[in-house]
Design a protein that fits this description.
six-stranded mixed beta sheet; 13 strands; alpha+beta; globular; three-stranded antiparallel beta sheet; 289 residues; single chain
């Protein structure tokens, strides 16, 4: 079955078309009611964090976390400056401020680099090295230099915050939400919550793949709470209302959307990731089974 073409932010100005791999109806159907699929120089092991709680009172990760697959390899950490191997380009806002870079000698492939440090740096490092999923931003390597860690990740095109002006229709909306929920369900399968699902933290590639940025934000959650799903609902509402973000689920123009779509939005107010996955878009006609 040929994938359905979705028009991204620039294609609304007749500049290019974006293909969403998740828009293939067969792919969307395969997710319905299904659990998500869940070597280098100077590589350093990362010990489990010992503190029981974060400064804001959240329970810290009790390692080890279940690996996403039995063959998961940790992202390598190099004890050197990233600027020995990468050339700085310009800065963008993609899940936070990132530097767009290229390897030296220069190639036609660009990456992003962002840095982090602080008391919880080791916990963030462990999370970044372990969590890999098709709908989570992929990182290639990490550099440890002076007091900071520098993360080299894939370059995405835009965030959903910028994508909003594309005014996605109901099918496009379903395909976007499907991919975000796929990532959220992966975190839940690892007994984690992301805690920062927002339009600015959800990125779209030039091939239409939707990915959740900043997986190091994840924290332990064995209760399968609905915080990430609730945040997903607010993201969905922003896409439906052209960016309106008042923290409420009430729509200004509910008449623009089908009853099934409105019902799915309402479900995000209380459902767990597993419960919501059973109501994901099906057969291009309905958000529910």
């Amino acid at each position: 079955m040929e994938p359905i073409l979705l028009q991204a932010i620039v294609s609304k100005s007749d500049k290019r078309n974006t293909i969403f791999p998740g828009s293939d109806e067969q792919v969307a159907l395969s997710f319905f009611g299904k659990e998500p699929n869940s070597a280098s120089d100077n590589t350093t092991p990362v010990p489990p964090p010992k503190r029981a709680y974060t400064k804001d009172g959240r329970k810290r990760i009790q390692l080890p976390i279940n690996p996403s697959t039995s063959t998961t390899e940790l992202i390598p950490v190099r004890k050197r400056s990233p600027w020995d191997l990468y050339r700085k380009g310009y800065r963008l806002e993609l899940g936070g401020s990132v530097a767009v870079v290229s390897k030296m000698p220069a190639t036609d492939v660009s990456f992003t680099i962002r840095s982090f440090s602080g008391a919880d740096a080791e916990e963030k490092l462990y999370m970044l090295r372990l969590l890999r999923h098709e709908n989570v931003l992929h990182s290639y390597e990490i550099f440890s230099f002076e007091e900071d860690y520098y993360v080299v990740s894939e370059l995405m095109s835009i965030s959903l915050e910028a994508f909003i002006i594309a005014r996605p229709d109901e099918l496009e909306l379903a395909i976007i939400i499907y991919q975000i929920l796929n990532g959220i369900s992966f975190f839940a399968s690892q007994n984690l919550s992301h805690g920062a699902i927002t339009c600015s933290n959800v990125l779209v590639s030039d091939k239409g793949v939707v990915k959740i940025a900043n997986p190091e934000c994840c924290y332990k959650n064995t209760q399968q709470s609905s915080s990430d799903v609730l945040a997903l609902g607010l993201v969905m509402k922003q896409l439906m209302e052209n960016g309106t973000n008042d923290g409420r689920f009430a729509l200004q123009r509910p008449d623009r959307w089908s009853e099934e779509t409105l019902d799915f939005l309402s479900t995000t107010m209380s459902a767990s990731p597993k419960q919501l996955a059973k109501r994901i878009y099906r057969e291009g006609k309905s958000w529910c089974c």
